[in-house]
Amino acid sequence: MNFCLYVLTPLLSFIGGFSAYILMLKIVWEQSLSGGDIGATLYWGGIAFFLLAVPIYLGIIYFIDNRFKRLKGLLYPIGCMLVFFIPTLLITLTFGSINLFLPEAMLFHSFFLTSGLIFGLCNWGFKKIKATSAI
């Protein structure tokens, strides 16, 4: 079960976030990622996700587990989604901007909002499965 919580959940949420990024790019800007753009997006998104977002998500889930007994299925995803701007800020600062309303930042907002949603839901689901299998 720990494999599902600490390996599978981050991977699924990263894939979901990257998919949201690509979908938003296609729908809003009618563009697609090509060649080096895919690598750069995966690289910068991966660094921000695995080094910053995942520890924050785990901290939020730990906080919710210690403070709340009910509504975790709602609180996990909302809590993880609310910090979407922090990893985006890391990415925009790396490129010399603090503006979180740039079109590129909006793409990363969709990335981290979606990954937060998936991370929270997966954590809730896997913990629910773990609790029912322990009974």
TrEMBL record:
Q: Which UniProt keywords apply?
A: Membrane, Transmembrane, Transmembrane helix
Tell me where on the tree of life, at the top rank, the source sits: Bacteria
Has the keyword Transmembrane been applied to this entry? yes
- Where exactly are the transmembrane stretches of this chain? 7-29, 41-64, 76-101, 107-126
Listed name of the protein:
NADH dehydrogenase subunit 4
Lineage, highest ranks first: Bacteria, Bacillati, Bacillota, Bacilli, Bacillales
